[in-house]
Amino acid sequence: MSATIEKRDHERKDVDVPSLLTIAFLLFFSCMIIFLVVWGMMNYFKLHEPARTAGQANLPVTSSEEFPKPRLQIKGAVDLANLRAAEEADLDSYGWIDRNSGTVRIPIDRAMQLLLERGLPDVGTGQTPLSLMQSRPGESATPPQLLKSP
Questions:
Q1: What is the Cα–Cα distance from 86 to 146, expressed in whole angstroms?
Q2: Is the pLDDT of residue 126 over 50?
């Protein structure tokens, strides 16, 4: 057996009750001061504000001519079908994206076929595909034009 036996016991120091009561009192006192300040401000505004705004409406007056009429979508299914048809036409056709820089659009099936035949473009030393894409001039592709439905 060891000569020194550790004695395990409970803590001898209790919670500092006066400090806890002081903190609780200060919080309560702060809440009361805030309540009194807000109450005083509300009474001040209740007494003085009606004199300044006497005869004025609480809400701003607006006329119906100021607001545009809502643009309701009458034929949602037809509009969606037209949009999808325009997108499909763009995917399946040739066209110019930017004639000045020589950027064109080709059908997606043809693009996949060319990619399989030629492979991915060779990335230069120290360049990643992302840096190559970011160094290209900005494309100015326009969204497909939809036919106006009557």
A1: 7
A2: yes
Closest CA to 83 of 20, 132, 145, 41: 145
Q: Look at the chain and count its residues.
A: 150
Q: Could you tell me which of 26, 10, 30 has the C-alpha nearest to residue 18?
A: 26
CA–CA dist 115, 118 (Å, integer): 5
13 or 124: which carries more pLDDT confidence? 13
Query: For residues 86 and 148, is the Cβ–Cβ distance under 8 A?
Result: no
d(CA 45, CA 22): 35
Q: How far from chain centre, in Å, is Cα 91? A: 30
Distance (Å, whole) CA 50 – CA 56 = 9
Mean pLDDT value of segment 81-94: 92
